[in-house]
Amino acid sequence: MEYLTLALEFIRNIDVFLREFVENYGIWVYALISLIIFCEVGLVVAPFLPGDSMLFAIGALCAAGAMDISIVLTAFPVAAILGDNFNRFLGVKLGHKAFAKGTGKIFNKKNYDKTHSFFEKYGPKAVTICRFMPFFRTFVPFIAGMSGMSFRSFLPWSVLGGTGWVFVCVLAGYFLGNIPFVKAHFELVIVFIVCISAIPALVEWIKHKMQKSL
After folding, report:
1. Interatomic CA distance for residues 173 and 196, integer angstroms
2. Phi and psi for 185 in degrees, rounded to 5?
3. 42-76, pLDDT tens digit by residue?
């Protein structure tokens, strides 16, 4: 419970924490955030790490001059693409073994079925679409690897998704994050972004429940 409280506190005040990181660690903050992005999309066990809200806050910090937007828009898409492809590789090598029992907290039949149906519905485009959806952006590359999607087919969608996700979220923060109203209610804006990000997953869950009830 304590860890959950700390995680929520971090998400709610992510702009404050990021500014402190920049002040304390300078250039190393780019490496740290690149690692967070890589882990969030590259490790199936890390879907809880911040994504959209963190990138939005980074965009606002870039607009305020606290971070260099040229480094952000170069390094972070690379981290996202590398994480994506590493996740696919893990799916190829370990996917079927990981879901063999199907009863774990992460590698269970429910998560597999939900992600696999999403992947089947959208095909290769799912690799790009899932970037804007928490949970799915962590699981879809893994399932893609399990399903035998080749590196050659996966890479273009991964590049499009990773680059588009970072650019959209960062530039939204860059142009909107320092508007007086947004700045004065930054905590609420971050919570709003988290809620908006969760809507596609919620819609899929409702559809799944309705289909089961029919």
Report:
1. 15
2. -125, 40
3. 887 776 777 787 888 888 888 888 889 999 999 99
Q: Locate the domains of the chain by residue range.
A: 2-43+51-213
Q: How far is residue 34 from each of residues 47, 79, 96, 152, 185, measured CA to CA in Å?
A: 15, 5, 29, 24, 27
How confident is the model at residue 139, as a pLDDT?
Answer: 84
Q: Tokens for 91, please give them.
A: 């799916």
Query: Is this model's pTM higher than 0.90 or not?
Result: no
Asked whether the beta carbons of 177 and 14 are under 8 A apart, the reply is no
**Per-residue pLDDT tens digits for 90-124:** 988 887 787 777 667 777 777 777 777 777 777 78
Is the pLDDT confidence value at 177 over 60?
yes
Among residues 75, 103, 98, the alpha carbon closest in space to that of 87 is found at: 98
Tokens (6 digits) for 63? 């607009």
The burial of 161, by beta-carbon neighbours within 10 Å (0-12 exposed, 13-18 middle, 19 or more buried), is given as: buried
d(CA 168, CA 114): 26
Report the length, in residues, of the chain: 214
CA separation for the pair 37, 32 (Å, rounded)? 9
Q: Give the C-alpha distances (Å, rounded to integers) separating 186 from 14, 173, 178.
A: 9, 11, 9
